[in-house]
């Protein structure tokens, strides 16, 4: 089979030539970017940061704005954290500190680590959750309910005002049982 000779396309059918992109300036090194981040942290005025970039860090004029923006972006990324991940990391470190302290019998450090773990886990806060896991009653609701029970039992005159609500409830149950026993004898 004979090879076909290649022909060039007519000018009208050819794709237009691509324009060459302007050469990118060399990337700023991580060390320089780190210094720009420190400048942003210590200097309040953007113009002062830009001037320091030009004079101290010798960043070309065409790259100063892009470098400052990249530094700001990295600051923003560094500030964005995942709370649960950081909490887990802190607890893991404290557990490690606790275990190492016990191995060398440093009870004070172990106790301090345990206290920090308790703070992180919020174990010192009074429970606002359900008192009874089978019922969805919070602590405040349980206190209110107990006060209502006392308000119903106190006027019955079963005991004096100093008697606890639990004792009032016991006396009320005993009175009801006595009443039922008398009524069943009559019948």
A few lines on this structure:
The chain has 187 residues and is an all-alpha fold. It is built from seven helices and no strands.
Structure description:
The chain is mainly alpha-helical and 187 residues long. The protein has helices spanning 30-42, 46-55, 61-79, 83-103, 107-120, 139-153, 165-186. Helix 4 runs antiparallel to helix 5. The chain starts with 29 loop residues before the first helix and ends with a helix. The mean pLDDT is 80.
Topology, element by element:
Layout: H1 30-42, H2 46-55, H3 61-79, H4 83-103, H5 107-120, H6 139-153, H7 165-186
Helix pairs in contact: 1-3, 2-3, 4-5, 6-7
Mean pLDDT: 80
Number of helices: 7
Q: How helix-rich are the residues, as a percent range?
A: 55-70%
What is the number of E strands? Answer: 0
How many domains make up the coordinates? 3
Low-confidence segments, given as residue ranges, are none
Order of helices and strands: HHHHHHH
Structural class: mainly alpha
Global Rg: 39 Å
Most strands sheet: none
Taking the alpha carbons of the first and last residues, their distance comes to 122 Å
């Amino acid at each position: 089979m004979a090879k076909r000779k290649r022909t060039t396309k007519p000018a009208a059918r050819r794709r237009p030539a691509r324009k060459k992109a302007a050469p990118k300036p060399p990337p700023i090194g991580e060390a320089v970017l780190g210094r720009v981040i420190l400048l942003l942290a210590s200097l309040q005025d953007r113009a002062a940061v830009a001037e320091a970039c030009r004079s101290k860090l010798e960043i070309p004029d065409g790259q100063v704005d892009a470098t400052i923006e990249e530094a700001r972006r990295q600051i923003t990324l560094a500030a964005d954290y995942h709370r649960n991940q950081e909490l887990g990391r802190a607890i893991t470190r404290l557990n490690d500190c606790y275990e190492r302290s016990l191995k060398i019998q440093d009870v004070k450090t172990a106790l301090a680590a345990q206290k920090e773990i308790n703070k992180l886990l919020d174990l010192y806060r009074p429970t606002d959750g359900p008192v009874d896991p089978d019922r969805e009653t919070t602590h405040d609701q349980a206190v209110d309910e107990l006060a209502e029970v006392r308000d119903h039992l106190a006027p019955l005159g079963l005991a004096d005002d100093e008697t606890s609500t639990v004792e009032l409830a016991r006396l009320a149950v005993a009175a009801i049982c006595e009443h039922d026993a008398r009524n069943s004898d009559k019948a």
